[in-house]
Amino acid sequence: MADRKVDVAVVGGGLAGLAAAEVLGRGGVGVLVLDENPRPGGQYLRGGRGAPIGWADRVKRSGLAMLDRLPRQAVEVRNRVEVVGIQPGFELLAADGGGGIFTIEAKRLLLATGARERFIPFNGWTLPGVLAAGAVQVLIKQSGVLPARNTLVAGAGLFLNAVAGDILKSGGRVAAVLDEAPLRRRMAPLLALAGQFLKLAQGGLLLARLLSAGTRVRHSTRIIAAGGEGRVREVTAARVDRRGGVVSGSEAVFPASCLAVGFGFTANTELAQLAGCRMVFDAALGGWVVAVSEELETSVAGMYAAGEIAGIGGAAKSLTEGRLAGLAMLRRMGTRPGGGPAPEASALLRMRRRQIGFARYFNAQHTFEPDYMRRWVSGLSDDLVICRCEEVRLGDVRRAVAAGFDAPAGLKKATRCGMGICQGSTCKMILLEVLAALTRKPLARIPLPSVRMPVKPVALGVLAGDKP
Ligand SMILES: Cc1cc2nc3c(=O)[nH]c(=O)nc-3n(C[C@H](O)[C@H](O)[C@H](O)COP(=O)(O)OP(=O)(O)OC[C@H]3O[C@@H](n4cnc5c(N)ncnc54)[C@H](O)[C@@H]3O)c2cc1C
Question: Considering 28, 128, 129, 404, which has the largest number of Cβ atoms within 10 A of its Cβ?
Answer without folding.
Answer: 129
